[in-house]
Protein backbone atom coordinates (compact mmCIF):
# COMPACT_ATOMS: atom_id res chain seq x y z
CA UNK A 1 0.00 0.00 0.00
CA UNK A 2 1.57 3.27 -1.13
CA UNK A 3 1.56 6.03 1.49
CA UNK A 4 2.74 9.64 1.42
CA UNK A 5 3.41 11.30 4.76
CA UNK A 6 3.36 15.09 5.00
CA UNK A 7 5.12 16.21 8.15
CA UNK A 8 3.42 18.55 10.58
CA UNK A 9 2.75 18.72 14.31
CA UNK A 10 2.51 15.16 15.71
CA UNK A 11 -1.18 15.52 16.60
CA UNK A 12 -3.73 15.34 15.21
CA UNK A 13 -3.04 12.78 12.50
CA UNK A 14 -5.09 13.05 9.32
CA UNK A 15 -5.67 9.94 7.18
CA UNK A 16 -6.81 10.75 3.63
CA UNK A 17 -8.70 8.12 1.60
CA UNK A 18 -9.50 8.77 -2.08
CA UNK A 19 -12.44 7.79 -4.26
CA UNK A 20 -12.81 5.19 -7.00
CA UNK A 21 -10.30 5.51 -9.85
CA UNK A 22 -8.25 8.10 -7.96
CA UNK A 23 -5.12 7.94 -5.80
CA UNK A 24 -3.31 9.77 -3.03
CA UNK A 25 -1.98 12.29 -5.56
CA UNK A 26 -5.34 14.07 -5.62
CA UNK A 27 -4.75 15.02 -1.98
CA UNK A 28 -1.37 16.70 -2.48
CA UNK A 29 -2.62 20.25 -1.97
CA UNK A 30 -5.01 19.29 0.82
CA UNK A 31 -2.22 17.43 2.63
CA UNK A 32 0.03 20.47 2.41
CA UNK A 33 -2.70 22.68 3.85
CA UNK A 34 -3.56 20.28 6.67
CA UNK A 35 0.11 19.80 7.57
CA UNK A 36 0.03 23.23 9.20
CA UNK A 37 -2.27 21.61 11.77
CA UNK A 38 -1.05 18.01 12.04
CA UNK A 39 0.66 15.01 10.49
CA UNK A 40 -0.95 13.78 7.25
CA UNK A 41 -1.02 10.27 5.79
CA UNK A 42 -2.41 9.97 2.24
CA UNK A 43 -2.92 6.43 0.94
CA UNK A 44 -3.39 4.65 -2.36
CA UNK A 45 -6.04 2.00 -1.88
CA UNK A 46 -5.16 -1.47 -3.26
CA UNK A 47 -5.31 -1.45 -7.06
CA UNK A 48 -5.32 2.35 -7.35
CA UNK A 49 -2.57 4.91 -7.82
CA UNK A 50 0.76 3.23 -7.10
CA UNK A 51 -0.63 0.37 -5.00
CA UNK A 52 -0.67 -3.01 -6.77
CA UNK A 53 -3.85 -5.03 -7.12
CA UNK A 54 -4.19 -7.76 -4.51
CA UNK A 55 -5.02 -11.29 -5.60
CA UNK A 56 -8.77 -10.77 -5.26
CA UNK A 57 -11.03 -7.74 -5.09
CA UNK A 58 -12.10 -6.86 -1.56
CA UNK A 59 -15.41 -5.50 -0.37
CA UNK A 60 -15.39 -2.01 1.12
CA UNK A 61 -15.90 -3.56 4.56
CA UNK A 62 -12.81 -5.76 4.10
CA UNK A 63 -10.82 -2.85 2.68
CA UNK A 64 -11.63 -0.79 5.77
CA UNK A 65 -10.62 -3.64 8.08
CA UNK A 66 -7.31 -4.02 6.25
CA UNK A 67 -6.56 -0.31 6.45
CA UNK A 68 -7.36 -0.20 10.14
CA UNK A 69 -5.07 -3.14 10.85
CA UNK A 70 -2.26 -1.66 8.74
CA UNK A 71 -2.41 1.76 10.40
CA UNK A 72 -3.29 0.87 13.99
CA UNK A 73 0.29 1.13 15.24
CA UNK A 74 0.64 4.57 13.61
CA UNK A 75 -2.43 5.94 15.39
CA UNK A 76 -2.03 5.48 19.17
CA UNK A 77 -4.39 8.42 19.79
CA UNK A 78 -6.66 7.86 16.82
CA UNK A 79 -6.88 10.03 13.73
CA UNK A 80 -9.09 12.33 11.74
CA UNK A 81 -10.17 10.09 8.85
CA UNK A 82 -11.01 12.04 5.69
CA UNK A 83 -12.73 10.24 2.83
CA UNK A 84 -13.74 11.51 -0.58
CA UNK A 85 -16.50 9.85 -2.64
CA UNK A 86 -16.00 6.06 -2.32
CA UNK A 87 -13.44 6.89 0.36
CA UNK A 88 -16.30 8.11 2.57
CA UNK A 89 -17.77 4.63 2.59
CA UNK A 90 -14.43 3.17 3.65
CA UNK A 91 -13.68 5.65 6.44
CA UNK A 92 -17.24 5.28 7.71
CA UNK A 93 -16.64 1.53 7.94
CA UNK A 94 -13.42 2.18 9.88
CA UNK A 95 -15.39 4.38 12.30
CA UNK A 96 -17.88 1.57 12.89
CA UNK A 97 -15.40 -1.31 13.00
CA UNK A 98 -12.58 0.42 14.92
CA UNK A 99 -13.95 3.44 16.82
CA UNK A 100 -10.75 3.46 18.89
CA UNK A 101 -8.84 4.62 15.81
CA UNK A 102 -11.20 7.49 14.91
CA UNK A 103 -11.19 10.77 16.81
CA UNK A 104 -13.17 12.54 14.09
CA UNK A 105 -14.55 11.79 10.63
CA UNK A 106 -14.82 13.90 7.47
CA UNK A 107 -17.04 12.70 4.61
CA UNK A 108 -16.51 14.71 1.41
CA UNK A 109 -19.11 13.97 -1.29
CA UNK A 110 -20.46 10.78 0.33
CA UNK A 111 -21.58 8.00 -2.00
CA UNK A 112 -23.69 6.30 -3.20
CA UNK A 113 -26.86 8.37 -3.62
CA UNK A 114 -29.64 5.90 -2.75
CA UNK A 115 -31.83 7.32 -5.54
CA UNK A 116 -29.18 6.57 -8.19
CA UNK A 117 -27.61 3.31 -7.08
CA UNK A 118 -26.83 1.85 -10.50
CA UNK A 119 -23.62 1.92 -12.53
CA UNK A 120 -25.13 3.75 -15.55
CA UNK A 121 -26.59 6.50 -13.36
CA UNK A 122 -23.39 6.95 -11.39
CA UNK A 123 -21.26 7.17 -14.53
CA UNK A 124 -23.68 9.58 -16.14
CA UNK A 125 -23.67 11.84 -13.09
CA UNK A 126 -19.87 11.76 -12.93
CA UNK A 127 -19.64 12.85 -16.55
CA UNK A 128 -22.22 15.58 -15.99
CA UNK A 129 -20.27 16.83 -13.00
CA UNK A 130 -17.05 17.03 -15.04
CA UNK A 131 -18.69 19.10 -17.78
CA UNK A 132 -17.21 22.59 -17.61
CA UNK A 133 -14.61 21.60 -15.01
CA UNK A 134 -11.17 23.22 -15.07
CA UNK A 135 -8.41 21.65 -17.22
CA UNK A 136 -6.48 20.89 -14.04
CA UNK A 137 -9.28 18.75 -12.62
CA UNK A 138 -9.69 16.92 -15.93
CA UNK A 139 -5.97 16.26 -16.37
CA UNK A 140 -5.45 15.01 -12.82
CA UNK A 141 -8.50 12.79 -13.11
CA UNK A 142 -7.42 11.30 -16.44
CA UNK A 143 -3.88 10.71 -15.15
CA UNK A 144 -5.21 8.85 -12.11
CA UNK A 145 -7.70 6.77 -14.07
CA UNK A 146 -4.95 5.49 -16.39
CA UNK A 147 -3.29 3.86 -13.38
CA UNK A 148 -6.30 1.62 -12.71
CA UNK A 149 -7.14 -1.42 -14.82
CA UNK A 150 -10.71 -1.37 -16.22
CA UNK A 151 -11.48 -4.76 -14.67
CA UNK A 152 -10.37 -3.63 -11.22
CA UNK A 153 -12.42 -0.44 -11.57
CA UNK A 154 -15.55 -2.44 -12.45
CA UNK A 155 -15.03 -4.82 -9.54
CA UNK A 156 -14.67 -1.97 -7.04
CA UNK A 157 -17.65 -0.15 -8.56
CA UNK A 158 -19.74 -3.25 -7.89
CA UNK A 159 -18.64 -3.27 -4.25
CA UNK A 160 -19.22 0.48 -4.03
CA UNK A 161 -22.80 0.12 -5.28
CA UNK A 162 -23.48 -2.85 -3.00
CA UNK A 163 -22.41 -0.92 0.10
CA UNK A 164 -25.19 1.19 1.66
CA UNK A 165 -23.60 4.02 3.62
CA UNK A 166 -26.92 5.08 5.10
CA UNK A 167 -27.27 1.70 6.83
CA UNK A 168 -24.17 2.23 8.99
CA UNK A 169 -24.45 5.99 9.61
CA UNK A 170 -26.46 5.61 12.84
CA UNK A 171 -23.63 3.49 14.26
CA UNK A 172 -20.94 6.17 13.78
CA UNK A 173 -20.03 7.54 17.21
CA UNK A 174 -17.26 9.93 16.16
CA UNK A 175 -17.98 13.62 15.54
CA UNK A 176 -18.43 13.92 11.80
CA UNK A 177 -18.24 16.67 9.21
CA UNK A 178 -20.21 16.01 6.03
CA UNK A 179 -19.12 18.20 3.10
CA UNK A 180 -20.70 18.66 -0.31
CA UNK A 181 -19.63 20.83 -3.24
CA UNK A 182 -22.53 23.15 -3.92
CA UNK A 183 -22.54 22.11 -7.61
CA UNK A 184 -21.98 18.37 -7.06
CA UNK A 185 -24.20 16.37 -9.43
CA UNK A 186 -23.02 13.01 -8.12
CA UNK A 187 -24.11 13.73 -4.54
CA UNK A 188 -27.35 15.75 -4.53
CA UNK A 189 -28.00 18.00 -1.56
CA UNK A 190 -31.02 16.04 -0.21
CA UNK A 191 -28.99 12.81 -0.20
CA UNK A 192 -25.97 14.41 1.45
CA UNK A 193 -28.10 16.10 4.10
CA UNK A 194 -29.80 12.79 4.83
CA UNK A 195 -26.40 11.18 5.43
CA UNK A 196 -25.54 13.90 7.95
CA UNK A 197 -28.93 13.58 9.63
CA UNK A 198 -28.41 9.84 10.19
CA UNK A 199 -25.09 10.31 12.01
CA UNK A 200 -25.61 11.10 15.71
CA UNK A 201 -22.95 13.82 15.95
CA UNK A 202 -22.67 15.27 12.44
CA UNK A 203 -22.38 18.72 10.92
CA UNK A 204 -23.29 19.45 7.31
CA UNK A 205 -21.60 22.16 5.22
CA UNK A 206 -21.46 23.03 1.53
CA UNK A 207 -18.35 24.11 -0.34
CA UNK A 208 -19.23 27.13 -2.50
CA UNK A 209 -18.54 26.98 -6.25
CA UNK A 210 -17.32 23.38 -6.17
CA UNK A 211 -18.50 20.10 -7.70
CA UNK A 212 -17.74 16.50 -6.87
CA UNK A 213 -13.97 16.89 -7.30
CA UNK A 214 -13.75 19.69 -4.74
CA UNK A 215 -10.45 18.46 -3.26
CA UNK A 216 -8.72 18.60 -6.65
CA UNK A 217 -9.89 21.99 -7.89
CA UNK A 218 -8.75 23.96 -4.85
CA UNK A 219 -7.83 22.52 -1.47
CA UNK A 220 -7.92 25.69 0.59
CA UNK A 221 -11.66 25.98 1.33
CA UNK A 222 -11.89 22.28 2.17
CA UNK A 223 -8.83 22.45 4.42
CA UNK A 224 -10.20 25.51 6.23
CA UNK A 225 -13.50 23.74 6.90
CA UNK A 226 -11.76 20.60 8.17
CA UNK A 227 -9.36 22.56 10.37
CA UNK A 228 -12.16 24.63 11.90
CA UNK A 229 -14.16 21.47 12.58
CA UNK A 230 -11.22 19.67 14.23
CA UNK A 231 -10.39 22.73 16.33
CA UNK A 232 -14.00 22.82 17.53
CA UNK A 233 -13.65 19.25 18.82
CA UNK A 234 -10.62 20.10 20.99
TrEMBL record:
Gene Ontology CC terms: membrane
Entry keyword RNA-binding: no
Keywords tagged on the record: Hydrolase
SUPFAM superfamilies per the UniProt record, alphabetical: alpha/beta-Hydrolases
GO function terms (MF aspect): hydrolase activity
Superkingdom, natural source: Bacteria
InterPro entries to which the protein is assigned, alphabetical: AB_hydrolase_1, AB_hydrolase_fold, AB_hydrolase_sf
Pfam families in alphabetical order: Abhydrolase_6
Start and end residues of each AB hydrolase-1 domain: 14-224
Annotated protein name in UniProt: Alpha/beta hydrolase
Organism annotation: Propioniciclava flava
Amino acid sequence: MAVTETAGPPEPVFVLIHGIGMGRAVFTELANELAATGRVLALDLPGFGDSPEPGTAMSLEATAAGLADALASELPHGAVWVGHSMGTQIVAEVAVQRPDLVRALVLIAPTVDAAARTAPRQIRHMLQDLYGESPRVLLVGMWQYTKTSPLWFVRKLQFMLAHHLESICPRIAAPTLVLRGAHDRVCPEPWTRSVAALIPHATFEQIPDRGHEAVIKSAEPVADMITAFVDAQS
